[in-house]
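Dear H.,

Thanks for agreeing to be a second pair of eyes. The structure we're designing against is below in token form, covering all 348 positions.
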């Protein structure tokens, strides 16, 4: 169904409909402190009202009989800097592990099949495949021994840098090692944080645990989360996939939940993928949008997302395109801080 806004025709299936203008000063480059002092925009679908609050007051807006689900993925120090035998510099951005100790990476700096890249700590990478999308498949070695995932993580955490999103336009700092991980980060595998969860403090988390059943699942956020939708029609966008895992307790909680709150788009996609496939482990490539709406998640806690991204389209799957743009306009007018280190939004 087409609607009009400011004399511009909007179509929920057109990528251009998800564009909006954001003043640069509203892009958060550092988090607020304490974390729960971030602003919280609350949209109530039943009353069609917006309330402005702070994250510290989150529980004032949550209904009873609610089961809460969080993502316990942990961000890898995925950016490493090395050089070729010729001396040419190469930046490698780790994306995810593949089968047989092979790894999907992006590189900055010219590499060809068979190129060997040298890093600190006697770490090397050999390029074994070149993909059409510009990504590379490599194997990592230390002192000539091929590395499995856990061994590689240990080295990356020594020599690597946290992969802050490009829109922050700065290098990572020591404080990011704490700020860009959730309090409950447990399973290494993400190259971006599940940012809605960065607002929790120990005190707030304890209060929530005392009132609601809280469960954890894992989705390792991949670099594809930042990939813009280039196709004119959103359904033509090739959706990226990310590894997920739902433990026995979380599965049981999902099956028994009367009402669910997903903290973040990653949890939403994982829960919705499970609701559709009954799979508790594998690769999630679910694309939620106004033509593919949630069937299991009742409420969503999230941040504000990039224009023309699959994440803003996910928001529209909950409230529709026109309401999404209206909420974002309101957030901009009220000077909310956007993106990973920015403020939050609750849809109830």
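And this is the sequence the design step returned. I haven't edited it by hand at all.
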């Amino acid at each position: 169904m087409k609607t009009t806004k400011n004399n511009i025709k909007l179509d929920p299936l057109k990528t251009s409909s998800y564009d909006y203008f954001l003043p640069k000063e509203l892009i958060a480059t550092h988090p607020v402190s304490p974390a729960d002092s971030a602003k919280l925009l609350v949209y109530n679908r039943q009353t069609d009202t917006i309330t402005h609050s702070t994250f510290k007051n989150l529980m004032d807006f949550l209904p009873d009989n609610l089961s809460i689900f969080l993502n316990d993925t942990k961000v890898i120090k995925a950016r490493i800097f090395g050089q070729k035998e010729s001396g040419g510099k190469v930046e490698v951005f780790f994306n995810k592990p593949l089968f047989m100790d092979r790894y999907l990476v992006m590189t900055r700096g010219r590499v060809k099949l068979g190129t060997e890249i040298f890093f600190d700590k006697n770490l090397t990478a050999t390029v074994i495949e070149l993909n059409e999308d510009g990504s590379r498949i490599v194997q990592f070695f230390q002192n000539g021994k091929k590395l499995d995932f856990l061994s590689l993580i240990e080295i990356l955490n020594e020599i690597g840098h946290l992969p802050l999103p490009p829109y922050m336009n700065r290098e990572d700092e020591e404080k990011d090692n704490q700020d860009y991980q959730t309090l409950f980060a447990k399973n290494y595998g993400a190259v971006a944080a599940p940012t809605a969860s960065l607002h929790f403090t120990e005190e707030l988390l304890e209060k929530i645990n005392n009132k609601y059943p809280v469960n954890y699942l894992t989705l390792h956020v991949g670099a594809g989360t930042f990939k813009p939708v280039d196709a004119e029609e959103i359904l033509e966008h090739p959706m990226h996939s990310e590894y997920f895992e739902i433990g026995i307790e979380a599965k049981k909680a999902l099956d028994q939940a009367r009402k669910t709150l997903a903290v973040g788009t990653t949890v939403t996609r994982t829960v919705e993928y499970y609701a559709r496939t009954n799979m508790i482990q594998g690769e999630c490539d679910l694309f939620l949008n106004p033509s593919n709406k949630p069937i299991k998640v009742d409420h969503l806690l999230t941040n504000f997302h990039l224009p023309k991204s699959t994440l803003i389209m996910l928001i529209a799957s909950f409230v529709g395109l026109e309401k999404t743009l209206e909420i974002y306009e309101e957030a901009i007018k009220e000077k909310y801080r956007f993106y990973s280190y920015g403020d939050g939004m609750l849809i109830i």
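Two observations from my side: The mean pLDDT is 96. The chain is about 20% helix and 30% strand.

Warmly,
E.
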